[in-house]
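[step 3/7] fold_predict: job queued, chain A
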Amino acid sequence: MSIIARRYAQALMNLAVKADQVADAAKALDEVADNVAGSERLQAYLAEPKVALSAKEAVISEMLQKGGVSPLVSTFVRFIARKRRIELLEDIRGEFHELADERMGRANAQVTVAAELNAKQQDALRSRLRVLTGKEIQLRMQVDPGLLGGFVARVGSTVWDSSLRNQLNLIHQSIAG
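[step 4/7] structure written:
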């Protein structure tokens, strides 16, 4: 994600913290970003350089008003539209959620497993990752039968690889080296 999107997300976070509206701002930002992302026609209109900025702002204002978006997020979205940064909305949303997760002691774990895990196994994995990271963990599961067994978990830039494929590679390296 871009540095610019991170700065805008940080600015919105500062405003949301000050107003004690972090969760509400995240929800409203999701609604707006989903509305924009869900309409190719709207995206094309907002990206068209021949359309006057005032016309784009009018369309955005109408969308925000119809959606009942909070004043904080509504003002923010209008601001980024005026700055011709509406195309960064999706990136800003992602950055804002990362900042919110950091603030609330949460982390997303991208977990790849060899086979589907049942609820009990997912809870055990979530607990183990909570101990390792010190954060509440949201699991995002993906199945890759090529792992043979075990799992690979990525939280931020840290990776834990306890897959059978990795274990076999380690054994091979120790024998060969």
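[step 5/7] annotate
The mean pLDDT is 91.
The beta strands are 106-113, 136-143, 151-155, 158-161.
exit 0
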